[in-house]
Each structure stands twice: as structure tokens, then as C-alpha cells.
Amino acid sequence: MDEVSKVTETPLAPPPLLARRARQPQPAISVVKSKLRKNLTCSASKVQKTLTSFFPVVRWLPKYKLKEYVWGDVMSGMIVGIILVPQAIAYCLLAGVEPIYGLYTSFYANIIYFLMGTSKHVSVGIFSLMSLMVGQVVDRELFLSGFDLNDDPTSKADSFNLTDDDPHTVDLMGIPCSKECYAISIAAAVTFLAGVYQIMMAVFQLGFVSVYLSAPMLDGFATGASFTILTVQAKYLLGLKIPRHHGYGTVPVTWFNIFANIHKTNVCDLITSAICISILVAGKEIQDRYKNRLKIPLPTELVVVAGATLASHFGKLNSRYSSSVSGHIPTGFIPPSVPAFSLMPRVALDAIPLAVISFAFTVSLSEMFAKKHGYTVRPNQEMVAIGLCNVIPSFFHSFTTSAALAKTMVKDSTGCQTQVSSLISALVVLLVLLFFAPFFHALQKCVLACIIIVSLRGALRKFKEVPAKWRASKNDAIVWLITMFATALISVELGLLVGIIFSMVCIIFKTQNPKFSLLGRVSDTDLYEDLEEYTGLTPPPQVHIFRFQAPLYYANKESFLKSLYKAVGVEPFLELTKRRKAEKAKGKSSKQAKANKKNGDVFIGPIHKELDFHTIVLDCSAIPFIDSSGTATLKVLVKEYKDIGVSVLLACCNASVIDALRKAQVFGKNDREMSSLLFYTVHAAVFHAGQEHAEAAEGKSEDSLF
């Protein structure tokens, strides 16, 4: 049986071209008018729907199952509140502001998210990464305004009012402002802008921005930032008064300064740090090891804070050993004030990464726990909620907030059912604000630094996962490493930018150098797969089936052509050039043959080698889209191979690819060649190629008879 009959032995009638649905595009003006009419009309039902959408609490709170939910919500809210208090005070070291503002931030954020959030489990409030990024802006602006960053304000009675000993003040909106006043003003200004950016992103439906923040990039960014946080807090463990470095290279410069001043270590702070870290780590390890047996998390941070505060107060560690303490934390609330608009042009760019990262962490956490518990969240409403968690508290002397993984996991593990738990956490913070805040006066800063550093255990443990990441995906591991090193060694903001750009470059590199393969047939079926990946496949006789696993667009069209030429072994332009040279040589040889015939010599002219295939089938099932450069490439490809007697057929194209090919007239005018070039399956294309070749062979044999 010859090769042609092998192809035609299983006839398969190609299906007719499917009829596309007719879609009449509406004029742009009518679309705009209909949208305006829909959005600007007002009715009672629409107002109610808008309010319930903006305040989701109105929907779920009336359906609250008191007996079923209250115990879990109260327990999780109290436990998270107890954890939140020492963390709120501690993270103010990162943010460069007084401890009272961390409590304000946690209180207002929990209240607002309770009203506006769509997640039942997310804990929104003070977050170490956000605090670090705010603190870098605060310290930079304090430095540029001439404040002494070595100044220790713990002896001041009220951080928001001026005292006679203030060595330096600046004019802010017509009011003289001390260092502490200026610090929280900067933090509030950058927080206000971050919230405005987030609300604008929600209004213009820009939530897709978070798509560019891949999981490996976010993990690497968080780990690099955690290493920066550890570095920034290391000086407090040793009791060193070293100003925070401004600009690039915070980690190496800070460690150099620490070792250069190591002889100035405060022994009291060092001993306290060693004891606190030991207790905190032991508590975390016990918690991790026996988490299935323990019904509630161990309040290790609260125990350490209480014990250290008592030891510092009765031991008079501040006066005897010059140990740096938190200082006076007033009770009650400071009157609200408008954020300083004069500062906003200086921090406008700094607010962008804060807005993006805060939103990304909040949405990713809310979606993760929503999937776990079987409900849905609305990312756009989450963006509005977290935006207002920044905008509104900025009027009440607060700084940037975000969802926090550790506290969210605590809420989930302690039986949280709804956001009522956030309300309970806010009430716990309120009790501290109203009654217990002054008791933290003697709390050493090194204890707060210990709480921050131990809380980074989860992020720093990511280093152990690098080998597993490398085995699972080298690309993801490289993205993680590049982002982590850029964040830790250059700066947090640039690390984020480098991570995003490098992730996108990796995607572009993948599409520019995708996998390509030749396909073979699976025994007597109509299935075709990669010849290099599977055994027992049979390539169709005189037909090459080529699969390109990437979109075909301007950036990878050359890669597509090179991979195709390499796979089939024939480049049409070079083949055509060879044939033209052979034709010229044949003309010369015929003249020479006649001359040799007269002389009686035998002459053998150049012999042209025929191709071992007559058709290329392009399997387009792995091509999601194609642009104008891609269609032009295919159009030229079909013509060039046709010039050397090879047909190029397309199979398994999706609707968008077909539309692009039709617009580019790849199938000729009025798609007259569409039925002979486009097929819905690879097998239909192979069958058509066999039939066409068989008919062409029969035609040649008939011509030879005459």
C-alpha cells in the first residue's frame, strides 16, 4: 500500500464552516447615552441597592445568627485585639511615629472594615510592611526638614503639642510643628493619598493592576521587606541610637553602622532582648507544635509586654541604665484635623506603592479565605473599603493599613464567623486607649523590636522553601530571588518595581521563546500529540504538523519562523534561491551537454533533490491571540511555501484568531480560500492534504499518458 493510500484509508469528511453569530455593533454615542441613563436615573430601589452595596454590613447583619455565631466572633475578636495592642505599639517604631497613633490606626480601620468589607475573616489594621514603607517616608521628610533623628522624645508629655525644649520646629499650615507633630502629619498625608488612589482605582475599575503582582513576586517582596524590617529594628535590640539610613542600600549601610557602633551596646537592652526573644520564640514554637490541642492562641506578646513593663517600671531601667522606653502614651482621642495638603506633593509618588501593595494583600487574603469557607467577595468593594480605611483615619492621626495574614489566620483558627469579630477587636483597643495606655510608659523599645522581629518568622522561613521552588518552577524561583534581593539590598520601593518589571520580562521571554513541536498520530485515532513527549506516535506521510505554544505577535514572529524552519528543515526563501540557481545551472549544463555530445563525452548535470513533504499543518490550538504582525507573517508564510510547492494549512484556530486572519485577508478576498486553508481539527487538515496530493498525483499521471 503506497503512502497516499495510507492517508486516505480512514476517510473523514471535513465539517462545513460554522456559521458565526451576527453581532451588530452599537454606535458609541448610543452606548454612552444608555450607560448615562442607567447610572444617572434615581429611584428608591436603586438608592437602597447602592447603599447596601456600599455598606455590606446592612445585608448580612440583620441575618446574623446570634446563638451560632456570637461565641466564635467574641472569642476571635478578643484574642486578635489582645494580640493587636502590643503589635500596634511596636509597629510605630517602624512607622517613625508615637505609639498612640498605632492604636488609633487599629481602632478606626477595624470599625470601617466592619461596615464596608465583604470578607468575613480578614483582619485589617496595622501591618509591618506598610509601617516600614510609611516610616521610610517619614524619616526622609524629617531629615529634609532639619530634624534630629537621634532625638529621643520619650520624656515629652504630649507628642502633639510643643514644649519649650523643642530644639526645632517647622511651619505647617500656619502652625509651628514639632518633630512628633510633623512625623504624624507626613504619615497622615501619605495615608490620605494612598486611600484616594485606591478609591480612584475602584471607581475606574483598575483592580486588574493586582494581576501583575504574581505570588512569587509578592512572596519575594515580603521576604526582602522582612529582612529590611529586621535590620531596621536590630539597633533597638542593642540599644544603639543610630539614625535610619535614607536612600538606597538601607540593609548593608545599617549593618555597617551597627557593627561600627557595637561597642556602644546598652547591656540592659541586650539582656532584655535576649530574654524576650527566647520567651516569644518558645511561645510560637509551642503554639505551632500543639495548635491542634490549643483552643486559643497563646497571648505570648501580651505576657511579654506586661512582664517587661513591670520589670522596667520597678527596676527603673530608663533612669538607671539609660534604656530607651516608649514614653508617655495619653488616653483618649486627639481632635481630628485635615491632613496637611501642603505635604502631599512631596509624598504623592510614595503613596502609589503603598496603595497597590495594601490593596493586593487585602484582596488576595480576602479571596483566599472566601474560597476556603465557600463564599464570595467583591474585589472592587474591597478596594473601596481599604481605601476608606486609609482616607477616613488619616483625619484622625492614623497611618496606612492593610489586611495582615497572621492576624487573619488567628481569627480563622479561633472560630471567627463574621466581621463582628473586628468590632470586638476595636472595642479591646478602645479600652486600652481610654484606660490602659499610660501603663505602657515604661515599656522598653527593645521589647517592641523583639515583638516585631519574632513576628517575621513566617516570612524569613521562606528561605527554606527556595530549593522546593526551584524544583517546582525555575522561573518562579528566579523571580522570588531577584525581587527579594532587590528589596533587601536596594530599597523597598525599587524592589517592588524591579519585581514587577522582572516578572513581566519573564512572561515576555516565555512568549518569545515558547515550546514548539512536531506532532504525530496516535495509532488509528484522530488524535495528534508531540513526537518528543510521547512514544508510539506515527507522523503522517509527507505532512509536517507544527504546534507553536504561545500567542503570535510582533515580539515573537521571528521566533515562530525560526522554530518552524528548524522543525520542517526547509526555509522557503533559501529553497527557492537554490532552485533558481539550479535552473540557471541546468540551462548552462544543457549547452555544455550539447557541446560534449559533439565531442563524444558524457556529462552529468546538477540534480535537484525533491522535498520529502508536500504540506505543513499549523496546529493553532495553543495560540490564544494573534496581532497584525502575526497575521502578516502567516500570510507571507503561506505564499512563500506555495512558491516551492508546499501547502500551509491552519487547524484548531479559535474565533478571535480566525477573525484576525479574515481581516488580514489571509484567506484571500471574500475568504474564497477559507475552506481549503482552515480546518477545525488537525485530522481534517491531514486528510485534506492527502486528498489534494492524491488528486494532484493522478492529474500528473494522466498528463504523462498524453
Automatic annotation (TrEMBL):
Single GO biological process annotation from the record: sulfate transmembrane transport
Transmembrane segments: 69-91, 111-134, 182-208, 220-238, 385-406, 418-436, 480-505
Family that this chain belongs to: Belongs to the SLC26A/SulP transporter (TC 2.A.53) family.
Domain of life per record: Eukaryota
Name of this chain's protein: Sulfate transporter
Any one GO MF annotation of this record: chloride:bicarbonate antiporter activity
Organism annotation: Oryzias latipes (Japanese rice fish)
Bilayer topology term: Multi-pass membrane protein
Keyword Transmembrane: yes
Subcellular localization: Apical cell membrane
UniProt keyword annotations, A-Z: Cell membrane, Glycoprotein, Membrane, Phosphoprotein, Transmembrane, Transmembrane helix, Transport
NCBIfam families for this protein: sulP
PROSITE patterns assigned: SLC26A, STAS
The STAS domain, residue ranges: 533-689
Catalytic function, reaction form: nitrate(in) + chloride(out) = nitrate(out) + chloride(in); oxalate(out) + 2 chloride(in) = oxalate(in) + 2 chloride(out); oxalate(in) + sulfate(out) = oxalate(out) + sulfate(in); iodide(in) + chloride(out) = iodide(out) + chloride(in)
Cited Pfam families: STAS, Sulfate_transp
GO cellular component: apical plasma membrane; plasma membrane
